[in-house]
């Protein structure tokens, strides 16, 4: 319907090729560092190719589909992936190949909560027999489960959850009830339409006594008809800001009966006579959330920011707007220092959070190994670290994606840029798996407790909080000094707020009031604590990684930039704490600007090194060839609104006025 408009060789393609020629480092080697080795890169590419070449997984661009189409296609693809593609290619969970799974997945898929929450919960909360019964069924999609914890009335405050599981000794069943509208489960992914089971978090009640939140497997739909079972009201909660392919659901249960064996009973059990047996700490009930807070940031936030950076930096390298040199040619917007100041620190964030996150995953794995031997002494530390890490990463990456989107000017607002999709995907990561403020407060609670202890009684990673403040020797811009600066700031923040808490409580103020009045500083302490962890982990990585000099230099520059950018955007905090002087801050700002200039020629190479395929980004601005304008035009042509040359509705509603206009104009014409 539309004629083709094409340039023989677009200037934009030429510009991006030049950028690549100017890069001062081997891009492929940086990709290997990012992936964790050459073999990992090869393996990832193999898996990604397997998925991308599969005709069943092809679908039209998201921005041309309705919600219904997006849900339908995502379900069809996910069913195929989990039942055919994965088992047929030996990509079993736990295998090395499976690690690259999230990068290979189509841009929209579902059944993810089934895989990342329902299945892990069976493993962590189920006894051996329960795991043996439920796990194979879940892995084969014979049962599909949601993680049903949040209710209409309560998400953060889990002690406030209202759904009840009352033990009926006579029938040896639990009776599940949502006593009020506010008790209805609300939000769980995959639950509205696809799931036939749910892992329901409910208050256990035996003989009128409440035992708190426990995990129950509840069947919600019939396995042959997929109809909701008696007593179950289930459906999709409606359109959201993003995740439109996913059926986040509501679930109202009235006298739904499940067998006694459906209480997942690794940590606590109800005997046939109603005796309650506690086998492990109540806190392990929260273990599923720690698991997700440790493992989700990579795929749901860090990779998302990496994609946004790829789009915004490639586009900024080909988008020419205005003059730097009066009388010269128009420049790429990436040549403006201010554009570099928006985008290059986001690259630093991607690297910092990725490598810090790998450290947390290792710590968590060590914790799980100890837990298997009955030792959960590190639980409080891993909870505090993972809570603030999830909060900080989701916050930094969400802010970063919005910066990238706005840095693309008007085109960043177009769905065709791929950026609104990424923003809507990442923004709920600040809410799900624990709302960020609530998580920072959890970390602060732990830190304040630690502040009253001796260094010898604290975990090694926390002891600095109560040790003497360290002196910085030399320039603030050295990596060692950045660590000292952030550690000192975290220690002073925690000590400061602990003092405030103690003083207020010594004056007789009730603890809950003390806590509320100190909460602004408590959150600041948790943020500074996790920042010192991230910087420390990034510096360790950069120091230890084996790579060529040019790559090392880029990583060191990104690491320094990450610390300095944070200092420069929060300089008031560092000055207030007395950790930095005005002179330090001036130097930090100047050094940041120098680093931007130094990294600028490598910016396109650095995003190329993330190695996202064009189809994994669905972005007209971020495609490898830089051919942005032709792609934008081609995408516009696909808009469903352009199917007909004349849209019938616009014709119908506007025609009377147009006819009036025609008569007036023709009257004017004939008068003239
Ligand atoms: C394509 C799809 C991708 C996206 C998928 C998205 C999937 C999303 C899933 C979800 O969102 S699932 C729902 C997630 N919900 C939450 O995370 C709820 C957040 N709330 C909580 O974690 C807790 O209720 C709370 C905020 C910690 C409660 O605070 P409260 O002060 O009431 O604590 P208590 O319950 O009394 O706990 C006391 C004690 O326990 C310690 N603790 C709390 N959480 C944990 C934990 N996770 N692990 C270990 N320990 C924990 C807490 O620090 C207290 O310790 P003490 O200070 O008493 O020693
Ligand atoms: C896309 C998406 C997917 C989800 N998937 C699932 C799922 O699969 N399963 C599931 O069970 N849930 C799921 N959820 C729900 C999610 O876990 C909750 O929304 C989340 O835990 C936050 O709880 P809330 O909505 O009750 O927020 P609230 O706690 O009501 O937060 C509202 C405001 O109150 C503030 N606030 C709350 N408590 C405090 C406090 N103590 N001190 C200071 N401020 C406070 C918060 O900071 C926030 O500003 C999902 C949510 C989304 C958006």
UniProtKB/TrEMBL annotation:
Name of the protein described by the UniProt record: Acyl-coenzyme A oxidase
Residues the record marks as active site: 433
Positions of transmembrane segments: none
Organism of this sequence: Phallusia mammillata
Keyword tags: ATP-binding, FAD, Fatty acid metabolism, Flavoprotein, Lipid metabolism, Nucleotide-binding, Oxidoreductase, Peroxisome
SUPFAM superfamilies, per database record: Acyl-CoA dehydrogenase C-terminal domain-like, Acyl-CoA dehydrogenase NM domain-like
Superkingdom of this protein's organism: Eukaryota
Gene (name only): Acox2-003
Main location: other
Cofactor(s) listed in the protein's UniProt record: FAD
Pfam families per record: ACOX, ACOX_C_alpha1, Acyl-CoA_dh_M, Acyl-CoA_ox_N
Protein's pathway: Lipid metabolism; peroxisomal fatty acid beta-oxidation
Family affiliation: Belongs to the acyl-CoA oxidase family.
Listed GO biological process terms: fatty acid beta-oxidation using acyl-CoA oxidase; lipid homeostasis; very long-chain fatty acid metabolic process
Residues of the Acyl-CoA oxidase C-alpha1 domain: 286-448
Limits of the Acyl-coenzyme A oxidase N-terminal domain: 27-144
């Amino acid at each position: 319907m539309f004629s083709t408009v094409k340039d023989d060789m677009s200037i934009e393609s030429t510009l991006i090729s030049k950028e690549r020629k100017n890069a001062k480092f081997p891009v492929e080697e940086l990709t290997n560092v990012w992936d964790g080795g050459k073999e990992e890169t090869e393996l990832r590419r193999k898996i990604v190719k397997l998925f991308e070449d599969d005709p069943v997984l092809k679908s039209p661009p998201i921005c041309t589909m309705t919600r219904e189409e997006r849900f339908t296609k995502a379900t069809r693809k996910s069913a195929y992936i989990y039942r055919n593609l994965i088992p047929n290619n030996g990509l079993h969970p736990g295998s090395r190949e499976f690690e690259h799974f999230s990068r290979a997945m189509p841009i929209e898929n579902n059944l993810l909560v089934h895989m990342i929450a329902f299945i892990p919960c069976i493993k962590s909360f189920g006894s051996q027999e329960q795991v043996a019964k439920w796990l194979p069924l879940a892995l084969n999609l014979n049962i599909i489960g949601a993680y049903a914890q949040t209710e209409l009335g309560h998400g953060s405050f889990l002690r406030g959850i209202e759904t009840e599981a009352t033990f009926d000794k006579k029938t040896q069943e639990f009776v599940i009830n949502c006593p009020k509208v506010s008790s209805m489960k609300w939000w769980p992914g995959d639950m509205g339409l696809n799931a036939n089971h749910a892992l329901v978090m409910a208050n256990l009640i035996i003989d009128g006594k409440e035992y708190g939140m426990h995990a129950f497997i509840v069947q919600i739909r019939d396995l042959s008809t997929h109809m909701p079972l008696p007593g179950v009201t289930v459906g999709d909660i409606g359109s959201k800001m993003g995740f439109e392919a996913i059926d986040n659901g509501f679930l109202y249960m009235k006298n739904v009966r499940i067998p006694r064996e459906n209480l997942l009973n690794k940590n606590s059990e109800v005997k046939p006579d109603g005796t309650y047996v506690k086998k492990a700490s109540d806190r392990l009930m929260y273990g599923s959330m720690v698991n997700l807070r440790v493992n989700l940031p990579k795929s749901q936030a860090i990779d998302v920011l990496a994609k946004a950076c790829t789009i915004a930096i490639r586009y900024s390298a080909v988008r020419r707007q205005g003059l730097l040199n009066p009388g010269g040619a128009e420049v790429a917007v990436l040549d403006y220092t201010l554009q570099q100041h928006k985008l290059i620190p986001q690259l630093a964030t991607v690297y910092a959070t990725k490598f810090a996150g790998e450290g947390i995953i290792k710590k968590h794995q060590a914790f799980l190994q100890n837990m298997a031997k009955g030792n959960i002494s590190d639980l409080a530390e891993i909870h505090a670290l993972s809570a603030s890490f999830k909060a900080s990463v989701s916050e930094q990456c969400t802010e970063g994606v919005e910066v990238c989107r706005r840095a693309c000017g008007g085109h960043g607002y177009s769905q065709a840029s791929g950026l609104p999709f990424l923003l809507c995907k990442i923004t709920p990561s600040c809410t799900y798996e624990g709302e960020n403020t609530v998580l920072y407060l959890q970390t602060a609670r732990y830190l304040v407790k630690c502040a009253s202890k001796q260094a010898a009684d604290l975990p090694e990673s926390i002891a600095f909080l109560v040790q003497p403040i360290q002196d910085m020797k030399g320039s603030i811009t050295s990596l060692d000094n950045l660590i000292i600066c952030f550690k000192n700031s975290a220690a002073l923040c925690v000590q400061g707020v602990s003092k405030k808490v103690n003083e207020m409580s010594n004056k007789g103020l009730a603890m809950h009031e003390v806590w509320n009045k100190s909460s602004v500083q408590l959150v600041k302490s948790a943020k500074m604590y996790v920042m010192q962890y991230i910087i420390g982990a990034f510096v360790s990585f950069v120091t230890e990684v084996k790579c060529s000099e040019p790559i090392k230099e880029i990583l060191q520059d990104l690491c320094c930039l990450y610390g300095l950018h944070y200092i420069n955007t929060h300089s008031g905090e560092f000055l207030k704490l007395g950790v930095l002087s005005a002179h330090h801050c001036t130097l930090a700002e100047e050094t940041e600007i120098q680093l931007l200039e130094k990294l600028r020629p490598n910016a396109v190479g650095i995003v190329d090194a993330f190695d996202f395929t064009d189809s994994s980004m669905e972005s007209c601005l971020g495609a490898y060839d830089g051919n942005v304008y032709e792609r934008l035009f081609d995408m516009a042509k696909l808009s469903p609104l352009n199917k007909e040359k004349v849209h019938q509705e616009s014709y119908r509603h506007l025609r009377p006025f147009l006819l009036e206009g025609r008569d007036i104009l023709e009257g004017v014409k004939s008068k003239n």
